[in-house]
Design a protein that fits this description.
By secondary structure, the chain is α/β, with parallel strands linked by helices. It has three domains: 2-10 and 196-297, 4-hydroxy-3-methylbut-2-enyl diphosphate reductase, catalytic domain (Cobalt-precorrin-4 Transmethylase, domain 1); 13-95, Rossmann fold, CATH 3.40.50.11270; 97-193, 4-hydroxy-3-methylbut-2-enyl diphosphate reductase, catalytic domain (Cobalt-precorrin-4 Transmethylase, domain 1). Helix content is 46%, strand content 18%. It has helices at 13-27, 42-50, 77-85, 96-110, 124-130, 142-151, 170-183, 195-209, 223-233, 250-253, 269-297; strands spanning 2-5, 32-35, 54-56, 67-70, 90-92, 114-118, 137-139, 159-164, 186-190, 213-217, 238-242, 258-263. Strands 1-12-10-11 form a four-stranded parallel sheet, sandwiched between helices. A four-stranded parallel sheet has the order 3-2-4-5. Strand 6, helix 5 (124-130) and strand 7 (137-139) form a beta-alpha-beta unit. Helix 4 runs parallel beside helix 5, helix 6 (142-151) packs parallel to helix 7 (170-183) and helix 8 (195-209) packs parallel to helix 9 (223-233). The protein binds FE3-S4 cluster (F3S). FE3-S4 cluster (F3S) is lined by residues 12-15, 72, 95, 97-98, 166-167, 194, 196-197, 265. [4Fe-4S] cluster binds at residues 12, 95, 194. Belongs to the bacterial ribosomal protein bS1 family. Belongs to the IspH family. It comes from Faecousia intestinalis.
């Protein structure tokens, strides 16, 4: 059996930065809360809660005298202004790639253009992006976009600026672009899919194509982890999405010749290491058993 770990598995730049900012806040001895879970990984959230950094749901819940940490997904203008209005110390861990999208949609509206956001409407990053627009239009897929455009042909001549959720797939973005290009007469695109996401997905697909089984490590609430599992399933017969090493289906994995491991952008390195370590231990057992039976044959 051979086990291969994708080089891009684990924290992306934005998540690493956000987690680093929380760690720094703890080191400085500040009282702080995070607005929503700092990342989509309950192990990390619990780790910080044990250090006194708890999660709150709205600006009103921030205790007086506490700093508030904005996660990498960012927040809407209304939320940002509500925090400012309370005079709180704001530690902004919004990923710079996400902040760029906030600027693009604001500029688009300032120039009389209509932002079109391609992404999952209820995803916090998309909610935040929409929250920087006066009239946001969000489409989860090409079908929804096509329907909205077909509903009123007058829409075809509106000036549109199209952006994407950073963790969308290239396939989804390309299909939406194709649909819009066909009918819209005044369209500009900003391919805002994060390259870290794109690389991770491409690497996962390539690795999955060479493996009998793929292990995708991450929190089930993490949408980029779910997407990775989905992508791997298109290239590999067996895909296991696990939260941590204790969820590994060892009897099934022992049957596989080549196993690949990848992980979502919010999966901490120690969980990936633990999974890799468990698989390497089985690997040694399997190899030793193979060696023994080989010796028996001699
Ligand atoms: Fe930022 Fe890309 Fe990560 S947008 S939060 S570096 S997935």
């Amino acid at each position: 059996m051979s086990v291969r770990v994708a080089a891009s598995a684990g924290f992306c730049f934005g998540v690493d930065r956000a987690v680093g900012l929380v760690e720094q806040t703890v080191r400085e001895g500040k009282r702080a809360v995070t607005l929503g879970p700092i990342i989509h990984n309950h192990h990390v959230v619990q780790h910080f809660a044990a250090l006194g950094v708890r999660e709150i749901a709205s600006p009103e819940e921030v205790p007086a005298g506490s700093a508030v940490i904005i996660r990498s997904h960012g927040v809407s203008r209304a939320v940002y202004e509500a925090l400012q209005a309370r005079g709180l110390e704001i530690i902004d861990a919004t990923c710079p790639f996400v902040s760029r999208i906030h600027r693009i949609v604001q500029e688009a509206e300032a120039n009389g253009r209509q932002p079109l956001i391609i992404g999952t409407p209820e995803h916090p990053e998309v909610v935040a992006i929409a929250g920087w627009c006066r009239h946001p239009l969000v489409f989860p897929d090409g079908e929804a976009l096509q329907k909205w455009l077909d509903d009123d042909p007058k829409r075809h001549d509106l000036p549109f600026t199209m952006v994407s959720q950073t963790t969308s797939t290239q396939f989804l973005w390309d299909s939406c672009k194709k649909i819009a290009k066909k009918v819209c007469t005044n369209l500009e695109f900003f391919d805002t899919i994060c390259k870290a996401t794109e690389n991770r997905q491409a690497e996962a697909a390539a690795l999955a194509a060479q493996c009998d089984a793929m292990i995708v490590v991450g929190d089930r609430k993490s949408s980029n982890t779910g997407r990775l599992a989905h992508i791997c399933a298109a290239h590999c017969p067996q895909v296991f999405l696990v939260d941590n090493a204790s969820e590994l289906d060892l009897p099934k994995l022992r049957q596989a010749g080549t196993i690949g491991i990848t992980a979502g952008a919010s999966t901490p390195a120690w969980i990936i290491k633990e999974v890799n370590h468990t698989m390497s231990e089985i690997n040694t057992t399997v190899d030793a058993a193979a060696e023994e039976s080989f010796e028996e044959l001699l």
